[in-house]
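Bug #77: duplicate submission created two jobs. Keeping one. Sequence:
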Amino acid sequence: MNPPENRPAAAPPRTVPEHIHKRRWYILGVLVVALLVVVLDNSILNVAIKVIADPDAGLGASQSELQWAINSYTLVFAGLLFTAGILGDRFGRKKLLLFGMVVFGIASLLSAISQSPGQLIAARAVMGFGAAFVMPATLSIISNVFEPHERPKAIGIWSGAVGLAIAIGPITGGILLEHFWWGSVFLINVPIVVVGVLAMVFVVPDSKDPRPGKLDPGGVALSIAGLVSLVYGIIKGGEDSWTSPEVLATIAVGVAILAVFVWYEKRSDHPALDVKFFREPSFSAASAAIGLVFFALMGVTFFMAFYLQSVRGYTPLQTGLFLLPLAIGQLMFAPRSAGFVRKFGVRAVTTAGMILVTATFLGFLPMGRTTPMWILLVVFFLQGVGMSLVMPPATNSVMASLPREKAGAGSAVTNTVRQVGGALGVAVLGSLLSSVYRDQIAGNGVPKGADESVEATLGAAAHAGPAGAGWVDPAKDAFVHAMHYSALGSAIVGAIGAFVVFKWMPRKAVPAAGSLPEQARETAKV
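Kept job's structure:
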């Protein structure tokens, strides 16, 4: 017999049923498909916004309507994530995942056949409703089918799938837009949904919380009302004036409603968002990092589509190919982030990632109308690497700080801050872009209404004959100037995120939280 000091370490006790444990990687593959279809849609939309804005080839959507096509999805998604997570914990995560996928597929079809910007915005809101049931279910199922020692790697792959979608989305969108009408970028979701649903029925197990909480319709209503009011005010500020009484009142109402939401949730015995989660530093700092990095990234992605297509003259497909290094950086490093965390600690890795992301935002500042494109490729690759060092460790910190049976609620929080951060990023940085552009283009003879965005100006110039020829160069110069302001805003937000994780993120990864006594009774069946 080996002496005690030479005995191999005992394997951790198994908490996942053996038949599920054996096929855990197949389950992860199916969940990645569900994640891909949700993320793919937004990444495709980024290269399609120029076409949708075209009055001839698209719907003639204004920049504000394009922002709402993005934000209607995001706000409904974020507002319902709390309830979706609780419903999954209560009734079964697989059931809610299938429901969300079906709704998402139907709404994708409705988006594809939209006849006006208003119809598209409404259909996108329904897509957000479906996605709200998909996103938290994927992450909470991962937390239930993987043991704690394997969970960081699985979450790294889950995060890397976002990078894959970033790569596939723009390229797929570019190919579709070269051969089909703009609605094809939404129609492509339908076959993916069909394949995903069939795979989920046969492969993904169901699980739920043996002691679920009650629903919180009051909290959900307050969160939706507050977010919609806040973001609507920010968008109107970019369109009109930040000092407008309507804008200030709308933003103030949104902030007040969200404050009431926090007060209400703290006193509720069945809150949609348990604010006590945020007392744990690893939970709150990781959530803040996720929200801040997506605030900056979504704002940059929004203006990059216009820079590459309207200013540099590239096609949607070429635009998608230019975004490929961003995806490659994530795909290469996201699965490896768990190893970096074990070696250097979660605080060091996430701080380094935030600093790198911030540096890439500053990398947009010297870019102009003739900048060599290899510089942009390098910046995008480094941005993907930085993202891969932030998202998986931060997501795992949130999930590890909660009991396994509360995985739905934890997943809802991470996805909510991600989506709210992204929505506010598009709203704030998009509004900043519009304001600076409008100021820069003034005095060049551009008529009112055509000065809203570079696409509106170039469209007006194309229909104005010789008189519009003099608007093209000033419009492109004005957009580049406005883009620099938005990039600087992103860098400031990224720097705040780096400070937050360095100050409050624990040095080492948080051990997986213990389960409640009822965990032994948690269902896990095919």
